[in-house]
Amino acid sequence: MSDNITPDEAAGWGPRGTAGVSFAAGIAFDAVDVRLGGRAVLDKFTLTLTPGEVVCLLGESGSGKSTVLRVAAGIQPIQGGVVRINNEVVSSPTIQVPPDRRGIGLMFQDFALFPHLSVLHNVTFGLKRLGRSAAVTQARAALKRVGLEDRENDYPHMLSGGQQQRLALARTIAPRPGVIMLDEPFSSLDARLRESVRGETLAVLRETNATTIIVTHDPEEAMLLGDRIALLRKGRIAQIDTATAIYNRPVDLNAARFFSPLSEIETRVSDGFAQTPLGPVPVSGPGRGEKVVVALRPVGALDMALEGPGVPGRIIGKRDAIGVDIYEVKVSGLDRPIGIRQRSNAEILPGRDVFLTLNPDHVLVFPAD
């Protein structure tokens, strides 16, 4: 690598700060209903994005994530509510503004590249309104930003998976839309590529300044990419907030489960505390005698040491990760072992006695179902 090549260029992307800037648009969904085959896919779905904001839609398969994008893009009619872009109604039960008049760029999960068109023509396809010369100039600028300027005469099948993803991104940003939507954009990439492509894609999106919706089923990905995360459940938003807030203050036990594995302890409240074999946990809300679930994440809720003080436990399982060990710890009074992740320690092996200290500020407590 020569001294004048940046790490981003060496990884195959063009120089940062060169993506074309869009006029970001606000977009709002107000009580949107979508029914398919008699089933409610979106149920009074409500969400407002401010210009330039990046929001990640997070949820399980079938929660309605991709339908939100299709509705916004104008390729899915709605049976109730309205969708507005810059306060103009673009979707309602009686109004359906065509997709090409919405100023939205949509990047599909499978990239939906045109196999019979060259790399350059894939990008110019959506720029016909500019005229041939201007379209080629704008397309080449987008290709340069994603590091494909020297592949413009190739065809999609000649590109690697990562390069196809970058081509799809270039085609999405080239028209400089006010709103960009990406449907599971990294799901087809292997783990080795995903982290670098994800970071560079976010950099491109920030450079365009476009309002962005990213659909994902990966909580970590949502936390890394979004200004806010909207957790979908059965066609509605169960919770929307910043990554920090939604992780630390999940709206319910199911939301907490979605963001990480949990060790769950069913117990009752006594004198303002949930009593557990690991120690008391202060609670607010549930009264004396009420059933609650104390939920412990693998990181933060418990400290584990080879010597006391602390509640005694025994290591019954250990898996090695990169720089981190994943333990199962048996504690007297608990039916199931506790899951703990912490920095690798060769001395802590199955059969070893350890001592656990509870960190109440990092413990979640929810009413029992």
TrEMBL record:
SUPFAM superfamilies: P-loop containing nucleoside triphosphate hydrolases. The keyword Cell division does not apply. One of its GO terms (molecular function) is ABC-type ferric iron transporter activity. InterPro entries: AAA+_ATPase, ABC_SmlMolc_Importer, ABC_transporter-like_ATP-bd, ABC_transporter-like_CS, ABC_transpr_FbpC, P-loop_NTPase. One of its GO terms (biological process) is quaternary ammonium group transport. CDD domains: ABC_Carb_Solutes_like (cd03259). Pfam families: ABC_tran (PF00005). Keywords: ATP-binding, Cell membrane, Ion transport, Iron, Iron transport, Membrane, Nucleotide-binding, Transport. GO terms for cellular component: membrane. Belongs to the ABC transporter superfamily. This is ABC transporter ATP-binding protein.
